[in-house]
């Protein structure tokens, strides 16, 4: 299992627009082969314009197939102008679970 974490810093006045775009595409993303789970988290305090996506993939190949898909390119093109900082991303493997 691969967990992809992406930190997105959104222009404060564009947060609702980002959430609407994300919500409109969540089911399509979750429908991609190998996508097990998808989450959107928002910082609760002072930096409420910082959001993180967590996506859970069966394999790195599944993630790469999504990243090479028309769906990803469409969504990325739509949300990229809403960022006020460069996105950061990590691909993680779970080592322990309680």
Report on this model:
The chain contains 3 helices and 4 strands, in the order E-H-E-E-H-H-E. It has 98 residues and is an alpha+beta fold. It has a 4-stranded antiparallel β-sheet with strand order 2-3-1-4. Strand 2 (35-42) and strand 3 (50-57) form a beta hairpin. The mean pLDDT is 96.
Q: In what range is the share of β-strand residues?
A: 25-35%
Q: Alpha-carbon distance between the termini? A: 16 Å
Order of helices and strands: EHEEHHE
Share of helical residues: 25-40%
As a whole number of angstroms, the C-alpha radius of gyration is: 13 Å
**Strand order within the widest sheet?**
2-3-1-4
Assembly annotation: single chain
Uncertain segments are none
Return the structural class: alpha+beta
* Count of DSSP strands: 4
The backbone outline, from C-alpha atoms, is globular
How large is the count of helical segments? 3
| Nearest-integer average pLDDT | 96
Quick one: biggest sheet?
4 strands, antiparallel
Per-chain topology:
Layout: E1 2-9, H1 15-30, E2 35-42, E3 50-57, H2 60-67, H3 70-79, E4 88-93
Antiparallel strand pairs: 1-3, 1-4, 2-3
Helix pairs in contact: 1-3
Give a brief outline of the structure:
Helices cover 35% and strands 31% of the residues. It is of the alpha+beta class and 98 residues long.
List the keywords.
about 100 residues; alpha+beta; four-stranded antiparallel beta sheet; 3 helices; about 35% helix
